Amino acid sequence: MWRQPKAVWAVAFACVVAFMGIGLVDPILKPIAESLNATPSEVSLLFTSYMAVMGVAMLITGAVASRIGAKRTLLAGLAVIIAGAGLAGMSDTVLGIVGWRALWGLGNALFIATALATIVNAARGSVAQAIILYEAALGLGIAVGPLVGGVLGSISWRGPFFGVSTLMAVALLVTAWLLPPTPRSARATTLADPFRALRHRGLLGVAITALLYNFGFFALLAFTPFPLDMTAHQIGLIFFGWGVALAFTSVVAAPRLQARFGTLPVLLWNLIALAATLVVMALGTDVKAVLATCVVVAGLFIGINNTLITETVMTAAPVERGVASAAYSFVRFSGAALAPWLAGWLGEQVNVHLPYWVGAAAVLLGVGVLAATRRHLTGRTAAEQHEPVRSAG
């Protein structure tokens, strides 16, 4: 699995930097709020604008890539991220940062959906192995993001934004150099294709499950720094542990559990375990040790879920992988965009426990949706997850 063409590693490196953006701002949420006199719900809009734009923009990724080719789409996405991150670091208002984070989300949409399809198509081995490689890049990026955010954020809250912009410039140069030109698709996809893909009940069920799961995930991610009430460096270290746990289970534990118990049983029990973790956080919100421990433990379950959900999406409907990824990402990111703001608002207006209760309820509802639609998936994932992908030559 690890013997891959240079082009695959180039895209994987860019994925690491792109996914750093998810957890990078976690350690600096409180410093931004304190420096700019903002409330938790206002600062949480950094996640909301990023996720909302990324979700909606996922609808255009397939249409763009099929017309200009995957490489140009990847490079365009990287360029937009460089601009969005750099301009966010130069902003002096929360609304300014929120707006530039939205631009960042547009760049991520162009890059992420295309990157997954590029790795799957260019990698040697099976679809499952290619996805594990992609998830390894995701996990590493998510793990390193909070650490970099904590280190640079301890100097200035602007540091992490400038850091990502610089790393993305490196990723753009590496991708432009190592990834060979990619031809346009034989058939140009349209904006309607992702919606047509969602007519398949299996794909729609997985997408709604991911939406609800992401609600709990981002409630944890965006709100927890406030009740933790620690320095940027301390929060960065806690979420670094979360990211390491996520990376380990996504690459090591998920494939083994899948091979032994099957994709859907593991997903169902894993989501239940994540909901239970959120319940513990709701009960122990006032105890920092409980919150910090649960953040890391949640990473174990999130890693398993990310890998298996992504594999399931790639085989859930008889459509092109890029279209399936765009449709799925549109549903989960658009819906999850509400979670960060709602978690902050509930924590301000009601109490600090409620965001975790709501997150746990959303994840459990996702369990119900997946259980109700599992008959549309049974047999497909098991049969196709070992489908060989095209060799890169």
UniProtKB/TrEMBL annotation:
CDD domains: MFS_YfmO_like. InterPro entries: MFS, MFS_dom, MFS_trans_sf, Tet-R_TetA/multi-R_MdtG-like, YfmO-like. Signal peptide: none annotated. Keywords: Membrane, Transmembrane, Transmembrane helix. Residues 7-378 form the Major facilitator superfamily (MFS) profile domain. Gene3D superfamilies: MFS general substrate transporter like domains. It is found in: Cell membrane. It is a multi-pass membrane protein. GO terms for cellular component: plasma membrane. It comes from the Bacteria. GO terms for molecular function: transmembrane transporter activity. The keyword Transmembrane helix applies. Pfam families: MFS_1. The chain crosses the membrane at residues 7-25, 45-66, 73-90, 102-120, 132-155, 161-180, 201-223, 235-254, 266-283, 289-310, 322-342, 354-372. This is Major facilitator superfamily MFS_1.
